[in-house]
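hey team, just a heads up i'm posting the complex here instead of the shared drive bc the drive is being weird again. everything in one block, sequence lines first with there labels, then the predicted structure for the whole assembly after. its four chains so it's a bit long, scroll down
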Amino acid sequence: MTANVQSIDDKIESLKKRCQELGMRVTTQRVEIFREVASSCEHPDAETVYENVKERLPNISFDTVYRTLASLEDMDMIFRVDSLLPKARFDADRRPHNHFICIKCGEVYDIFPEDGYEVTIPENSKKFGEIKDINLQVRGICNKCRH
Amino acid sequence: MTANVQSIDDKIESLKKRCQELGMRVTTQRVEIFREVASSCEHPDAETVYENVKERLPNISFDTVYRTLASLEDMDMIFRVDSLLPKARFDADRRPHNHFICIKCGEVYDIFPEDGYEVTIPENSKKFGEIKDINLQVRGICNKCRH
DNA sequence: TCCTTTATTAAGAATTATTCTTATTAAGTA
DNA sequence: TACTTAATAAGAATAATTCTTAATAAAGGA
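-- predicted structure starts here --
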């Protein structure tokens, strides 16, 4: 196993640990919703998470998905990916990477930077507040939409 | 006047030119909606644009604002700023700059890079499609929300 | 200037995405 | 095993955006 690449089970273990640290309960729903985002490379939206978790937990509600995605985000276990559409999408990949976002269809593609590439924080961004994360968005028209 | 800094009237002139190029009509609504985004530093959302344009054009409809913002975006006259909230915000500032986005309140602050700072396009982002724009998002908690 | 064509608009209904309310359930603890 | 309360399900409510249709007005030609 390489650094930064965790198995799903490892990721779920760190979720459980984080819940304990924060005094939050380890519920089936929380675990399964996290599993769904953490095991996907598709930056799923709330609806997709709902559909997929529903196969395992048929009684899951839409509200639980939204509430849990928001709490996982607060816990820093998942991250919101901007999609330009009025629909939030999520990512649990902690490796530093950027996103190509298609301005036509909203699809989000991971850009794992080649060796040596790094985005640096602009010095004068620090005056606005406490920085949590930086994220480079490359916007364009994806190959699929060009045809 | 410095390069890249245009007066509002100049910006509206370029809108009219762009409409002509594209065979689109120069309507009062289109001009006033563009004026609103182009003269604001606040990255206004559709509702704010609607409220402000309404003072000059009392009959403007919400739909026209949405439709026109989308068409101005297609024309490359304005840009969508991601806000993490399910609410689009817009920017007409063509100078290269980045955004600090508050993860609590969604506020968007302009980061005009200091001399010498530049974000470069990751080489391997090109394989996903045609690149139109790159945009560095710095996410954090703004000073207002820290108190 | 007036007419014609058709892109654009206003109005409001419809849809989509998200959040809220309330009663119920179950995780963690004693 | 029982208790406490965080978390959930269900579905109503709200917020953001888009669609439908008839009316309007911009641009070009007579």
